[in-house]
Each structure stands twice: as structure tokens, then as C-alpha cells.
Amino acid sequence: MHALVQLRPLEEKYRDILVVIGVHSAKFMAEKATEALRDAVLRYDIRHPVVNDRDFKLWNAYAVRAWPTMMFIDPRGKVIGKHEGEVPVEDFDHLIGQMVAEYDAQGLLDHQPISWQLEKLTPGLTESSPLAFPGKVLADVATNRLFIADSNHHRIIIATLDGHVGQVVGELEAGLADGSERAARFNNPQGLALYNNNLYIADTGNHAIRKLDLSTWQTVTLAGTGEQNRDYDLTGGAGLQTDLNSPWDLAYWDEALYIAMAGFHQIWRLDLATAQIKPWAGTGYEAIKDGSLKEAFFAQPSGISYYNGCFYTADSETSSIRQISLDGTVRSPVGSGLFTFGDRDGTGEEALLQHPLGVSAGPEGIYIADSYNNKIKRLEPATRHVITLYGDGSSGYLDGPGSTARFNEPGGLSLAGNRLYIADTNNHLVRLADLTSGEVTTLQLKNLSDK
Known about the structure:
It is built from five helices and 32 strands. It has a five-stranded antiparallel sheet with strand order 13-17-16-15-14, with no helix packed on it. A five-stranded antiparallel sheet has the order 18-22-21-20-19, with no helix packed on it. With 451 residues, the chain is mainly beta.
């Protein structure tokens, strides 16, 4: 996804001569479905054609070995270069500029821009929902508040637990700005944490950590510069002087925020008293490996939750749940490899997940948004036993008993008493799962249009 962000300004700058075609060669089974790819195109606001290479035909034809890979093709249709991994925008811009000058001098460039018909949300359920790809939710029983990261609307919604909207912070346009409710700007906000009447926000698209004071409704930036950092050998530093890389979720513990830093494949720690931020767990190497904080490997941790002396993370690329104890030990109750995934209940290595994005820990276990399986599951850490609670595995929208309910790539969840609040991301909804009755319902947001 970072490559898409890097490409966008270049697509605009060279729009009359550069043609970008995306090729989607899926790792996970759920990603092979064209409808899932369409949702991703909408979610990430992709503005060029994307081919669904579900059988890896183009991958093999072009001898691709890694995600992402960029192939360069000249005006005659000849492959002239390949780059694996991300590339700084400045370097990419310089390279394209050189090629433009060369081929323009040869009279090979057609400066007539190509126009594309962009995908739009399907009329019906998704169009009528007031949300756009909500990534995370946070429910707080003590104050009767529900916080929703309305991610693709770049705003935070604050409601009561039964859906009455009180405040909306941010606007529908992405940006990075501190200030009051309407002055503040976010870019694809995701994870949320609550402490001392402050809401902490993982502002993923801005590579920043923000704080919203729930008394004054002022938003300030705590960490990050707004620029993405691709250097894995970091020691951290002062929050506002340290570049981050896709912070995806937050958990509070003992005057600090623990951050699922997906882009670095690490867990970071922000000291709220000193405003210092640094890596806390993980080497930055993308894989799965248990051990001490400095030995462990993670792979795009996208969810984090704290309970009873342990942090739990949803390690999306290894389809695993990791447990990090406060004594500094990392273990994997579920998951064993980058290419080990599926949909199977069971104990230990029998259990399989597929690209989980959210976790919420509580006394009964760890609740998991098993995103690509369209299910909500529960892990008992001591026994490593996993069971499905809600969702029949089909991608769709259906309320009712847990075994027949349907979700569409749920990305986050929050335990509140005997209920789970679920960010049903690709359905653009917040769902409610009753842990006592087993029923799934849809939360209706009230008064949002008036805010």
C-alpha cells in the first residue's frame, strides 16, 4: 500500500505520458476474489486500472519474486527495468524524468492523457451508510461512549453506546492539522486508546500519533512528522522529531502508549510523560519468531490490546496472534509462518487464521477480528484453543444468530461488558455481537447528519 501512496503524486505529475497498471497477485485466498479486490481499490482510492492476477500468470511471466515489484516498460512495449520493494518518491521522480526526456527526444511519447472510469460504491447498503471503511472502534462502558475511526472519511465519531452521535472530529478531506473539532485533520485514522479523558489516535496515513482532549475538543500531535520513515535501524527519539511508519493500533498501559507499528513490523512505545518514542519489541525483520523483545520478529502488527500483564497483537501477515508479557517474553499462541494460514478452529498449531487485523482482550479470552475469514473468533491463551463465535465465513452482510451472521472483512473490535462492538470495515458499518445471546445486530448511528 505504501507504493500506491508513492505513485499517486507521480501519476498526477506525469498524467499525460505515464500509464500505471496495477497487477494484483494475491497471497491470501480471500484476496483472490474480484469483489474483495474491488473493495481494496475503493478503500485505497486507487485511480488506475488493476488486473486480478489470481492464478499468478503475470507474476510468473514477468519473473516477479516479491511484493511490491515495479516493472518499467518503454513506449515500444519492451521491459527495460524492474525494482523490488519501495522506492523514495524523489528517486522515482528523477528516473521517470530521465526516461521522459529520452523518449520525448525520439518522438516516441503520445502526450494525449488517458482517462479512466473510476470505481464507485455500489448503490444500496454501502452508499446509505454514513461510514466509509471504518477501521477500528473503542467502546467504554464507564462513560457510555463509543469511538469510531471513520477511516476513509478521515474523521473520528464519538457516540453513546446505543449509537447517538455527540461529536465529529475532523472533516471528510485528508490532511494533517491540529486544532478544534472542525479544524483538525486526519488521514485514514485507525487505532484508538482512551486514558484520563484523552483519546489517542493512530493517524495511520499521516504516520503520526494524535491526542484528542475530550474536555476541550482540541487535537494535538504527539509523535510523527507527517513523513513516512523506511529506515528499520531506529532508536527513536523526541516524538515530534521522529518519523514513523504506518502506526495501526494503540494500547495504553502505565503512562505509555504501545503502538502496533505495522510498517516497521515492530511494537513501539510512546512515553506520555517525556514524549519520547522508540521501538519496544521486534527487530524490524518481517517474519514470526518468539523470544525476547530484542529477538522477536513480527509481520505487520495491525491490532494490539492489553489485559492482565500481557499485550496481544494481531500479526496480520503471519496470520497469528502474539502474546508479549511485561517481563519481555514474546510467544505465539496461534500462527507459525508467513504462508501458513486458513480457517480452522482448534488448539495450538491446529488453529488457523487468515490475516487478522483486530484483537480485544478480556477475562474470557482474546477476541479476534479474523478479517479475511469474515469471522469473529476467541482465543484462550493458556490452552491456545481457538473457536469461531460469529460469522459463517461468507463475505456479506447478515444479522442474526452468530453461526449464520455475515461480515465483510471486519478490521477492529472492542469488548464492552457482554457485547462486542465490531468495525465491519467493508460493509461500512458497526456491528454488535451479544456474548450472552449470540445474536449479531447492526448499530444504527443517530444524529450523524446533523453534526
